[in-house]
Amino acid sequence: MKIRLVFTFTFVLSVLLVFSQHSLPPKGELFRDNVVSSIYVTLPADSLADILDYDNRLSDYHYHASFVFDNGVVRDSIAVVGFRLRGNTSRKSQKKSFKISFNEYVSGQKYQGLEKLNINGEHNDPSLSRAKYCFDFLDYLEVPASRTNHVRLYINGEYFGLYLNVEHYDEEFTKSRFNGKGNLYKCTYGADLQYRGATGNSYKLDYYEIKNPDGPNGYEDLAQFITVLNNTPSSDFECEIEQIFNVNSYLKCLVMDVLSGNWDGPNYNKNNFYLYFNTHSDQFEYIPYDLDNTLGVDFLGVEWSDRNIYNWSKSNANRPLFTKIMARETYRNRFNYFLNKALSEYFNPTLAYDRFNDIRLLIGDAAKADTIRMLDYGYTWSDFNSSFGYFSKDHVKYGIQDFVTRRYNSAVSQLQTLETTGGIPLWHAAVLNAVGDSITYTIRVEEEESLESVVVNYNWEYQSAMWVDTLDVLDSVNHLYSKTIAWHPTLKQVAYSFTLNGSTISTEYPVCDMFSLVKPSNDIKLYINELMADNSTTKMDGDGEYEDWIEVFYNGDSPINIGGYYLTDNLSNPFKYKLPATTMLPGGFKLIWADDEVGADHANFKLSKSGEILALFDAAGSLIDSISFMEQSKDVSLGRAKDGDPNWISFAESTPGYSNTGFSRIDELQSQVSVYPNPSSSRVYITANSPIEELWLIDMQGKMQDVQWNKQFLNISALPAGVYFLNARLGAKLIHYKIVKVN
Questions:
Q1: Which of 493, 507, 700 is nearest to 611 (CA)?
Q2: N or C: which end of the chain has fewer CB within 10 A?
Q3: Which fold has domain 3-21+421-518?
């Protein structure tokens, strides 16, 4: 049996499998889309004249400018930014698009966490709203893409019109979604992903622009992906492609393409997408951009409203990404599922009309005052309003309402039913926890009416005997299934996979091979003891900044020098950050700042507040300890209930560099607090010898639960079945109890 992944985790393991959910950051003030914000750019008059000079249309020179952002709630100003043209065809237009670079002249300068903004003129679109709807579509599909909103742009006090404010794709974008440092490739016209050779040098072409040339293995990872995509035999394709490419995320983006008529991407026009190598999953992520040529906009003379959804790529052209994936029945079934769901929940005439009407009412005044938008195609105020309904002029073949109706009806008529083979797609995540002598498997699946059971298949140390256990329904609303089993009494390694059984179909995950886990152990007694992945107010580093941190704890019998040990947030790179040569005494602590900065006690990576894995290795590459955590709350640390303890809990009051005090042992609390019944399906009564000043409940992933506490009992009836941690404050003492919710 071939085993793809082997993890040897200590005490706690929560492995997010390949379909882990991307972190989609909140819109924040910069991308609030219930108002039309204003951006003010001021620069010397001769600089603006140079920018607008047609002879300088290809220039990427950044002119010195000042920047002001105002959305009616916040008003911020930055004294020095870079300002230039951006785009391709828009450089020749009257209404141009611009780029604002906050870090061009002030190194490290950011605004609301971003280094750059794209201010797009949307000169092709009389509604000025098509790209916005499509980016929102991607947000609905939960795939990584730019945050957007409409803004009024003023340059030197003059109103330049209504623009779309679009988040720039760069390392800040990839950090916020993937928390990684992999290579980011901008793929422009010509990027057809055809095989040109096995080495990276074969792809050092203008249309495969690597955005971080100093990144790891430049172009070699891209070459490997393209080689697998084009040259893998059909019998091995699904196995090999899913190891190197996030297929589900691509299929969801394809749903947006075929429904919106986005022809200017890779599937038809070999253009306008990014590929990012996610160092945490070792997979490429597909990221679309420039979505204005959609929803009835056409320059090619093709009828996009009724084009076959399964033959979307350009006829007689080699588009291996689309054709290779859509040739697989498994992937067509997944595509069918995602598309059918989008048709019912997002892209249908009723919902789309309502959304576009909201946009029209929001931006109407700003669009009416935008006279520059009229200069390219002569679009009038009447054209703006008509373009949302039934409209045809120049390259705009259909108004939005007309196109959505046609495309919806066509897609519904073309949509195929699930075949007899293939599979129910997994959604987001599967989690495996190993604590003490037990293993808990939890998996989340897409809602599927035909789903009858979810099972885990496992064997011990590569033995031929395969065990099968049916997972129990943990949360029917969120489609969570779970099962806890005991470790084998003598064998230390388990290999496992999942099977989703439907009435007519079933699917295996992973597609091939199995995952493997070695039973935890730690003879070194060096632990990751506490961490904070979203520090804003709790503790500052030596530079006076609130950075994320990691606490290491040593519980051995004699002093130890930790200079030969390593911290990492990437299991494929166990030697990412070498701990400083420091002698730790038994019971000692070492605090490391996870801020991706150079300096003593500063790790060369950051923690992701949306969740990731953190591991501790020795010099031989043996795993000493690890924790895989889910989404974290601001200024709440995650740590062991007691120093070195196998149980992890969230702390309302963190203790970086000090003992995790405040949580007494359960057996010591019996005289102070009584919790009953436990387990419980509905109410848990709580009494104490002294008043309970504060009480909260946290799940196994460290997330706060919304429950009702009326000073007598805790109402847990609405919670999914599982294990929770009760935290109560009695005066200066913080106590901790484990509660089991049952159905």
A1: 700
A2: C
A3: Immunoglobulin-like (2.60.40)
Q: What CATH architecture does domain 666-741 belong to?
A: Sandwich (2.60)
Q: In what order do the strands lie in the sheet with 722-730?
A: 694-699, 722-730, 733-741
CA distance 680 to 174: 43
Tens of pLDDT along 104-146? 999 989 999 899 999 999 999 999 999 999 999 999 998 999 9
CA 539, 540, 545 angle in degrees (round to 5)? Answer: 135
Whether the upstream peptide bond of residue 679 has omega within 30° of 0, thus cis, is yes
C-alpha to C-alpha distance for 549 and 163, rounded to whole angstroms: 39
| Interior/surface letters 67-94, b for 16+ CB within 10 angstroms, e for the rest | bebbbeeeeeebeebbbbbbbeebeebe
Query: Structure pTM?
Result: 0.71
In one letter, which amino acid is 668? E
**Inter-axis angle of helices 349-368 and 130-140, to 10 degrees?**
140
Encode 473-493 in three state secondary structure.
Answer: EEECCCCEEEEEEECCCCCCE
CATH topology agreement for domains 526-651 and 666-741 = yes
Domain boundaries, the chain: 3-21+421-518, 180-348, 526-651, 666-741
Nearest CA-CA partner of 580 in 557, 596, 603, 597:
603
Q: What does the DSSP 8-state code read for residue 245?
A: B
Q: Which residues pair with 76 in a beta bridge?
A: 69
Q: What angle do CA 345, 349, 354 make, to 5 degrees?
A: 80
CA distance to 106, 238, 541, 738, per residue, from 545 (Å): 18, 46, 6, 35
Per-residue pLDDT reduced to its tens digit, 655-699: 898 888 644 333 333 346 677 777 788 888 887 777 787 788 877
Burial of 413 (0-12, 13-18, 19+ CB in 10 A): exposed
Both tokens of residue 636?
């709440």
Tokens of 605: 């990576």
Residue 599 is predicted with a pLDDT of: 79
**What is the third-level CATH fold of 526-651?**
Immunoglobulin-like (2.60.40)
d(CA 725, CA 13): 18
Number of neighbours of residue 28 by Cβ within 10 angstroms = 12
Compute the distance between CA of residue 485 and CA of residue 491 in angstroms, rounded to an integer: 14
Compute the chain's Rg from CA coordinates.
Answer: 28
The letter for the amino acid at 136 is D
Whole-angstrom distance, CA of residue 111 vs CA of residue 39: 13
Selection from 712, 668, 724 nearest residue 687 by Cα: 712
Instruction: Note the residue count of the chain.
Output: 743
Alpha-carbon distance of 142 to 385, in angstroms, equals: 30
- Classify 368 as helix, strand or coil: helix
216 pLDDT exceeds 90? no
Angle at 25 between CA 24 and CA 28, to 5 degrees: 145
